[in-house]
Write a structure and sequence with these properties.
The protein is α/β, with parallel strands linked by helices. 41% of the residues lie in helices and 13% in strands. The longest helix has 28 residues.
Length: 454
Amino acid sequence: MAAAEGSPSGTSGPPMPVPTVPEDCSSDDAHAVGRTPLAVLRQVVAACACPQLLGSPAVPEAARHRARSILQEMDAGNIGGYNHQHRALGVPTRVARFLERRDGGVPCHPRDVVLCSGTASILPFVVSLVVDEAAAQPAGVLVPVPGPPLHRAAVGSAGAAAVPYPLAEERGWGVDGETVRRALRGARARCRPKVLCVVNPGDPTGHVLSRQNMEDIIRLVDEENLLLLADEVQQERAFLPGRPFLSFKRVLWEMGAPLASTVQLVSFYSLSKSVAGESGFRAGFLELVNVEEGVALPFQLAQSIPRPCVLGRILLDLLMDPPEEGDPIQQALEEHRQRLHHDLARNARRVQEVLGRVPGIRCHPVQGGARAFPRIQLPPRALRRAQALGLEPDVFFCQKLREATGIALAPGSQFGQPEGTHHLGLSLLLPAETLERVLLALTRFHAAFLRDFS
């Protein structure tokens, strides 16, 4: 007998216990899904916050030595003050040197580095700088679909109009120039497009843009006179040697004159998505490239910019340190980075191997970032049932999955997706054994779902 509509049940194998509290298996928050923080970073922060630990053998000497060096930059050797010099000069200078190393020597001036308490807090401020409240039409910001929900929310809160442009799923979620131009033409009746937002590596799509694609984007923003917002917060999660992360700044510089000195670019970096994955400390920075004075000046003057707390700033500073042979902290960071890339690559392969064999599910190879974004087939009867309940079809699927297994995945509609398609957001940061359990539960449930709604 078929199961009642909305109650998939015909799974093969023994039933899996359902946890009382749903298990979030879609997050890109490294520590929330079970990854272990890097102890030496926490030890440095602890010694800065509690100087009594500077003499304690419970803290390794390398961490105590680094903490002493940090405290020497603080007013009266105390992190409790405002410490303007550390915020305005010390850390931005080291960020600038980090960016120069990352970009193969492309110069960076500390004045072009703006510290912030993460992308979520600074993005609405950045967008607000292109908004003219007296204009007849609102400013428009092109945002990728799929893409982080944060972008659409930030655009709206800044008083601008979000202009979605679809990524090319059939081409590995790349940015197609003609698709962006169609979105521009269609938007000009309701807004004045001023900004193009690009996410690289992609979230939730897991793509890493090729140099050619990035060059095409740069030429497009030049031709259309757009400010380029480069969300590059997942850069340290690009794990395929054959598709390394390249910053838009580096590609722009290497394209040469006149573009290298005329295209306006704002790029973002976040401690939350760094190799450290320290989301709770709320720190990051943005870099301004060729940005006109009217946009750049408010960053220097505004006191309302959400700045990182001193502990977040210290952690960010630690990641900016140049690699030095024999430095235990840098050695620990490099080992942590290699483990992260190994685990992400392994999990991405497993998702591809397992889901690639499942009828009705397909997933593009993931090159970077913290999520896979498989596409799922949902039968017409399930679509009708979801519509009757006032739900997006993938939301309906995820609700039923959670009820049956206790596993919470993100519906693709949360990020936006091509019309008529349905996707799931699945974390690649999960421990290997957790991922295996999730993949088994998902494949069993999807098969039962297709049977019960056929």
